[in-house]
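# step 3/5: fold
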Amino acid sequence: MYDVIIAGGGPAGSIAAEKASRGGLSVLMLEKATYPRNKTCGGGVSQKALDVIGGIDKELIEREAFGARIFLPDYRNFAGMLDDRVAVMTRRENLDHWLARRAEDAGAVVQDGEGVKDVLFTGDYVEVVTSKDRYRSRMIIGSDGVNSTVARRSGIRTRWGADIGMCLEAEVELGETVVDECVEDRLVEFYFIEDRGYGWVFPKRDRISIGIGEFAPRVDDLKGSFNRFVRDVSVQKNIDIEGRISGINSYRIPAGGFERKIHGDRVLLAGDAAGFVDPFLGEGIYYALKSGEIAADVVAGAVESGDFSERFLQEYVTRCEKEFNHDLKSALKFANFAYGHRDLFLKALWRDKRLFMEYLRTARGDRTYTEFNRWCARRSPVTFAKLIVGR
């Protein structure tokens, strides 16, 4: 019997597996795909996420971003850049494989190509049924994404509500020279073209990630919006991006900042499975890593005490709230303001470049959303009054 089984081998699962193993626990991590596996994601990893990891190998870094260029609906645009790195661009198949190997090096048993099909809870253990076998453990961490089997089988969550979004994304091979022409050095691009979301172009080494996303329970004709976006960007840049797309990936993302249940007897949810995603940017890697770290600590305490009750595991909820979830609620206020009053928000961005620079520092991790919201209110109390009251 294992001390803990971790379902899902993304950043949340791998960091939890590594930390729990280094703490002396017996750990089994199960990943349904085979590494290196494709992961639909823009591939941007914020500096604050890199700080949690402790840095990554240089070969994993495709490009570095020190700022961003913002495009308004009429394609007027402006850029801002910090002296310090805001994020790096990676290919998730490589990053996730590297994190999984690090967990394995720490002592975790990592089995890929073996997805969790069912989870059975008893008074004494958890039994996990996979596509190949059955395993028992004292606890389980569900880091198996937005469609979490662990969340459903534990009864923690059977379905998402209005707090879910959808993204469409493609990785387009252009070659290094054309990528250099496509996106200015050390920048990423964000396009505010839809009512409730944005488009992006993230440069990698020899390719770009291009996509759009909206936080809305029902998104009408997102495929059409994606095609129009790619076509428009191709025209604006005079680069045939549209003709080089070989496939379009779709994925759902839960908006963070909502009150949700994330634990029960012998079970914790981490990362996307728990809904820990920035509701403005849609970035989830940082929150996956932080929740995975906290989950490993709490599991260690449960194993030491022999108490796997929901009451004991409340410590996980308390720590997540303190370390980042309270701030996700502030991020949700900002997202509701920015998307709910888009014209006002974009006008403020256009007129006040300092606002944008302060947001870059927030995305980098130099300040929290709570601090950023307060700064906004002091900067322009009339414009941002709706932000503070959360409407």
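# step 4/5: annotate
The chain is about 40% helix and 25% strand.
# step 5/5: archive (pending)
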